[in-house]
Specification:
Low-confidence stretches of chain A: 1-25
Number of helices of chain B: 11
Radius of gyration of chain A: 26 Å
Structural class of chain B: alpha/beta
Order of helices and strands of chain A: HHHHHHHHHHHHHHHH
Number of domains of chain B: 2
Number of helices of chain A: 16
CATH architecture of the largest domain in chain B: 3-Layer(aba) Sandwich
Order of helices and strands of chain B: EEEHEEHEHHHEHEHEEHEHEEHEH
Mean pLDDT of chain A: 83
Shape of chain B: elongated
CATH topology of the largest domain in chain B: Rossmann fold
Structural class of chain A: mainly alpha
Oligomer: heterodimer
Distance between the termini of chain B: 32 Å
Strand content of chain B: 25-35%
Number of strands of chain A: 0
Largest sheet of chain A: none
CATH class of the largest domain in chain B: Alpha Beta
CATH superfamily of the largest domain in chain B: P-loop containing nucleotide triphosphate hydrolases
Radius of gyration of chain B: 25 Å
Helix content of chain A: over 70%
Number of domains of chain A: 1
Mean pLDDT of chain B: 81
Largest sheet of chain B: 6 strands, mixed
Helix content of chain B: 25-40%
Strand content of chain A: under 5%
Strand order of the largest sheet of chain B: 6-7-8-3-9-10
Largest interface: A-B, 30 and 35 residues
Shape of chain A: globular
């Protein structure tokens, strides 16, 4: 009688013999394999015999936790699927875009990230929509869950500076996000390259990289906001909800309020030019508080080189300009205020959470 | 005072207008097992947090191993192992991984950390559970894992905050024995906070009684109880019903409770006798249970029950509080 374990054992043996035969057939392959495994083993043993800085230890642990968590896997799946969806619509509409547009300097490759036929939003719209979700979900329980499980006081009673913990949490989440966004961006580029067969120019490539960097800053803002809530609120649910509430406020309610205000102060059609100009300026300034708006303004400018200005312009300012795409340097100059504002908001959130975390008394549970 | 490893001078901590720790002076010698005894909310945990620099004192100074905890908490934390009340572990990690993480935070290489973690797991008797997720550990196992976690950095001092809370009696006994054994073997100084007099009594060389932010008394258990009870360490409760004297016609002198009270008061060693209906409260300096029983029977009253009351911490500090107020 053969038991199941016997069969599996046999299977093992068979596998081994197969491997051995393969090895013996291809000695060069085997040599290379053993070389790699030797190098890997050396690296590993070197790592295992080196003391790491505590900060590094915490970051490593946090990254491991993120990558292994179901939450992150689900998020990656959602983001990857939507990206592939938007890539698909972009590719199906590419033909029309190429036919319709100017042939010479149309920046075809960037269209991969911006084209949409209206059924599914384009790549960068997706990022501006999912970015907050990504940031909030990676940070909302950063500190309070450690506090609630009682691990916070245990970690802080080790010889580490208190700010290591919060800095490490931020660094880990940010590096996970960076890797993910870069991977996705390059994946879209690669698939696009294969599908449309036109390689990106150097400028296009740089623009896409700046776009990804910008997305990382944008997600970092939401990440810090949710870390701030995780320091302030004891319950992870509360902190997640407050993050989502702010997100909703900025995407839904704040534009509504601005519309109301704008309607209230709208000057008559026959008002003098400077009043109209001032009105447009105010409307523009009110919108600039919204991080989503900052992000989408900056990305549009980066991904559509034909965008020449973000605020209202007077006729005098436009007078004499030649329509055409901006060079990368000029586009970057144009979005500089937006990027600065995003970074400032990120740092502000981080500073507040840092301050309140450092002042906090760490009790067990 | 070269031998003192922990020195607290005039330590004060306020939360708003409430003073939680009030001018605490305490010195703990090297190699000593010191018990910080006090009811819930007495400020024990706050004192401990100040010792390892997790909370800043409003006034006074803390020196652990000769290092100022407020100024240089990292150095202190390198030498002091702290087991918080209700210690938490990463539930998704195994016990071993949790220990390795702590060890690496203390600057060990992964190899060292792994070896040391395994040794310590064996010492606290968790070798079989080393690769089980910490989330699956029982309360007692978590506490033992916590002890291993504290010891992994080779500390000079270990501070245990209510370590026996929520463990069953067997678990408590094993845990306490483990602490004693480890502290003797490694020559550790142990600070042990608890509200269980009996546990503290079993383990500690010296005890500090800590109530409402102040150290009321300090010393070994004997000294403490003498100080607290000024000689009357035992209370015996006797339930007595009036003697069946009626059958003999007329109440006998001796069956009368008032008479009995007098007899009891004259027994050598009895400090005071109070009576409520038929229940006598007898305070005495020694264990006089058999003598009292005989006295009651000799007086021809009927002894319904005799109960030796032992002091819980509540009695002790309540009692001390009363005494303290009287003195003022």
């Amino acid at each position: 009688m053969i038991y199941i374990t016997d069969i599996s054992k046999e299977g093992w043996i068979m596998n081994d013999t197969v491997k051995q035969s393969q090895v013996s057939v291809e000695p060069r392959e085997a040599k290379r394999l053993s070389f790699f495994s030797r190098v890997l083993g050396k690296i590993r043993s070197a790592r295992n015999n080196r003391t790491a800085h505590p900060f590094r230890v915490i970051v490593e642990k946090e990254i491991t936790d993120h990558v292994r968590s179901w939450r992150f896997i689900i998020l990656v799946t959602i983001v990857a699927l939507t990206c592939m969806g938007s890539l698909y619509t972009a590719l199906t509409n590419m033909g029309k875009a190429i036919q319709a547009g100017e042939t010479e300097r149309a920046f075809f490759f960037l269209k991969l990230f911006t084209i949409s036929d209206g059924t599914l939003p384009s790549f960068f719209v997706f990022i501006s929509f999912l970015g907050p979700l990504l940031g909030i979900s990676l940070g909302f329980d950063a500190v309070n869950s450690e506090q609630n499980t009682g691990t916070l006081s245990r970690v802080l009673s080790q010889p580490v500076h208190r700010d290591y913990l919060i800095n490490a949490k931020f660094t880990a989440a940010l590096s996970v996000i960076s890797v993910m966004l870069f991977a996705l961006g390059y994946l879209v580029m690669g698939i696009g390259l294969i599908a449309i067969g036109i390689p990106p120019t150097a400028e296009e490539f740089l623009r896409i990289n700046f776009f990804i960097l910008l997305s990382i800053i944008y997600v970092a803002f939401w990440l810090n906001l949710s870390v701030l809530f995780s320091v302030r609120f004891r319950q992870p649910a509360t902190s997640a909800l407050s993050g989502i509430a702010i997100w909703l406020f900025f995407t839904v309610f704040y534009p509504l309020i601005i519309n109301l205000i704008a309607k209230g102060i709208e000057p008559s059609k026959y008002a003098p030019g400077y009043v109209l100009y001032l009105y447009e300026k105010i409307k523009f300034a009110l919108v600039q508080i919204i991080p989503n708006e900052l992000f989408s303004e900056a990305t549009t400018t980066l991904l559509m080189p034909s965008v020449r200005s973000l605020g209202p312009l007077t006729i005098e300012q436009i007078h004499g300009t030649i329509p055409g795409p901006l060079p990368l340097g000029q586009s970057l100059l144009l979005v500089w205020p937006q990027v600065t504002a995003l970074i400032a908001a990120t740092i502000l959130c981080f500073a507040i959470s840092y301050y309140s975390f450092m002042r906090r008394e760490v009790r067990s549970r | 005072m070269a031998g003192n490893i922990i020195e607290l001078v005039g330590l004060t901590k306020k939360y708003g207008s409430q003073t939680v720790v009030d001018g605490l002076d305490l010195a703990i010698k090297k190699g000593e097992v010191f018990g910080l005894l006090g009811p819930n909310g007495a400020g024990k945990s706050t004192v401990i947090l100040m010792m390892i620099g997790l909370t800043e004192p409003d006034n006074g100074s803390v020196r652990v191993c000769g290092i100022d905890s407020t100024r240089n908490p990292i150095e202190v934390k390198r030498r002091v192992g702290y087991l918080p009340e209700d210690v938490g572990f990463y539930d998704d990690y195994t016990g071993l991984e949790n220990l390795v993480y702590t060890a690496r935070l203390n600057g060990m290489t992964p190899n060292e950390a792994g070896q040391r973690a395994e040794q310590l797991l064996a010492r606290v008797g968790l070798s079989d559970e080393a690769n089980k997720k910490a989330g699956k550990y029982s309360r007692g196992m978590r506490q033992r894992l916590g002890l291993a976690d504290v010891l992994i950095k080779n500390p000079e001092v270990i501070i245990l905050d209510e370590p026996t809370l929520g463990i069953d009696p067997t678990g408590v006994r094993e845990f306490l024995e483990l602490i004693i054994k480890l502290s003797k073997e490694e020559g550790l100084t142990v600070l042990f906070s608890s509200h269980h007099l009996h546990q503290v009594q079993k383990v500690c060389d010296r005890v500090g009684l800590f109530v409402s932010g102040r150290l009321l008394a300090e010393g070994d258990i004997q000294a403490l109880s003498q100080k607290l009870f000024s000689g009357s360490a035992f209370i015996i409760e006797a339930g007595v019903s009036e003697a069946a004297g009626d059958k003999q016609g007329g109440i006998t002198e001796q069956g009368n409770p008032d008479r009995l009270m007098e007899i009891l008061q004259h027994i050598d060693g009895v400090v005071s006798v109070t009576r409520k209906d038929n229940i006598f409260h007898i305070e005495c300096s020694r264990d006089l249970t058999p003598i009292i029983a005989r006295a009651v029977i000799d007086s021809e009253a009927e002894l319904n029950y005799l109960n030796k009351k032992e002091y819980g911490l509540d009695d002790i500090y309540y009692r001390y509080f009363e005494g303290g107020l009287d003195h003022e």
